Every structure is written in structure tokens, then in C-alpha cells.
TrEMBL record, chain A:
SUPFAM superfamilies: MoaD/ThiS (SSF54285). It comes from the Bacteria. InterPro entries: Beta-grasp_dom_sf, MOCS2A, Mopterin_synth/thiamin_S_b, ThiS/MoaD-like. Belongs to the MoaD family. Keywords: Nucleotide-binding. This is Molybdopterin synthase sulfur carrier subunit.
Automatic annotation (TrEMBL), chain B:
Its EC number is 2.8.1.12. Belongs to the MoaE family. It comes from the Bacteria. It catalyses: 2 [molybdopterin-synthase sulfur-carrier protein]-C-terminal-Gly-aminoethanethioate + cyclic pyranopterin phosphate + H2O = molybdopterin + 2 [molybdopterin-synthase sulfur-carrier protein]-C-terminal Gly-Gly + 2 H(+). This is Molybdopterin synthase catalytic subunit.
């Protein structure tokens, strides 16, 4: 699946998007965050406070317990500050 | 006449008067137009700011604003609304965001404009980075913005 990062999540990981293939036992958004956290120092820094991180699946806001099955694009970002 | 809903996410500036005219010209069923403009300030409390850079999530930004525009249309008797949100580097005094709502009477137009702005702040995927003398930093989300959006939930 394609994963996108924005704002300081993007800066800490050092890339705007990538394709990842997590193992089958990674089923929810929070499980995906935990798996990504173990992929390197930048990921650990970006996800050091997982409760702060917001997630969208296929461009719609979702919750940490949302299943990721079937997702084409998952985005992680800080709380939004537009307007 | 049919309602006109316009949502644009763009780098370039916008003309507030022209956007209001586009919504209301040639119609006789609109009695109230409310517009809100969000501008770039030259300071954050005591800290001078030389510019803001707005990052956004292309595709989702438009989709999320449109979802809230449709909610506003369903919730209030509006003749039309326009939302424009800029991205990229914006200097103090420049426009960032515009919300225009049109209705037969003022209450719906006022409320819908406030609803749209409250949700834009907390749900539209935009992130502001401030440029200051020390370099720069990402703007932190504010709790009072969450509270402002939450009061519309019911």
C-alpha cells in the first residue's frame, strides 16, 4: 500500500511517500503505526507520540482502531492548522 | 434557482469582491451574503513572522472541504457558498482563506460561515509553518479550535 507523510511527520521520516508491505498481522491503523515505528530512527521520532498522529485512509479521516484492509493510500500527519 | 457550491484549493491569491459578486450577481433570491477572510499575520504573539508556508494534502484537501460544504448546504437554507484555501508561501497581509455564504436571511449565512471556518481549522489537511528570525517552526494546533468545531457536532 502507498503511505504518505505530511508536515513534521514527513520531515522526521525524511520522505513524502513510499510503498510499504506490512505483515498480515498488522490489521489496524494503530498496529501499522507500531510497525512503522520499528522501521528506523526517523520513524520512531515521527511516531514518538502516536496519540498525536492523525490518519486518513483513501483521503478520509479515520480512527486508530480502523482496519487497513483494502486501503490504497494511507496518510499520517500532525493535527491540522489550516484556515 | 439552483445553489452554487464552489471549492478551490490554489496557490494564487483570490479577489474577495469578485467571489462575492460571482455568488450573488443576477439573483434576486439572496438577501444575505457573509464573507470571512483569513489573512496572514505578521506576528505570533511577540514573535515577528516573515512568512507562512502552507503545506496541504492534494486531493484530500478539496474532498474534505467539499464534505463540509455539503454538510453546510444540508444544514442551512443556503443559496450558495464558496470556499477558497491557498497553499504555498504567504507573506503578512496576504489572504489565506475565504468563505462566502449566501442565503435569504442573515442567520443561516452567518452560522454556515462560522461552521465552515471552524471545521476548516480542525479537519482540512493543511499545515502552517512559520518563518521567523530563528528559522522556523510548525504551528501547533490549538485546543480552542477543537472546541469551536465540537460545538457544531450534534
Amino acid at each position: 500500500m502507498k503511505v504518505k507523510y505530511f508536515a513534521w511527520v514527513r520531515e522526521r521520516i525524511g520522505k513524502a511517500e513510499e510503498t510499504v508491505e506490512p505483515p498480515a498481522d498488522v490489521r489496524t491503523v494503530s498496529e501499522l503505526i507500531a510497525w512503522l515505528t520499528a522501521q528506523g530512527d526517523g520513524y520512531a521520532y515521527a511516531f514518538e507520540k502516536p496519540k498525536v498522529i492523525r490518519t486518513a485512509i483513501d483521503q478520509t479521516h479515520v480512527q486508530p482502531d480502523t482496519a487497513i484492509a483494502g486501503a490504497r493510500e494511507i496518510a499520517f500527519f500532525p493535527p491540522m492548522t489550516g484556515g | 434557482m439552483t445553489a452554487i457550491v464552489t471549492v478551490r484549493v490554489q496557490r494564487e491569491d483570490f479577489d474577495t469582491a469578485a467571489e462575492i459578486a460571482a455568488l450573488s450577481n443576477g439573483r434576486t433570491d439572496i438577501g444575505a451574503v457573509v464573507s470571512f477572510s483569513g489573512l496572514c499575520r505578521g506576528n505570533d504573539h511577540e514573535t515577528p513572522i516573515s512568512a507562512l508556508t502552507l503545506e496541504h494534502y492534494p486531493g484530500m484537501a478539496e474532498a474534505e472541504i467539499m464534505r463540509h460544504a455539503e454538510q453546510a448546504m444540508a444544514r442551512w437554507p443556503l443559496q450558495g457558498l464558496t470556499v477558497i484555501h491557498r497553499f504555498g508561501r504567504i507573506t503578512p497581509g496576504e489572504n489565506i482563506v475565504l468563505v462566502v455564504t449566501a442565503s435569504s436571511h442573515r442567520q443561516a449565512a452567518f452560522e454556515a460561515a462560522e461552521f465552515l471556518m471552524d471545521y476548516l481549522k480542525t479537519n482540512a489537511p493543511f499545515w502552517k509553518r512559520e518563518e521567523t528570525e530563528d528559522g522556523g517552526s510548525w504551528v501547533e494546533a490549538k485546543g480552542h479550535d477543537d472546541a469551536a468545531a465540537a460545538r457544531w457536532a450534534k
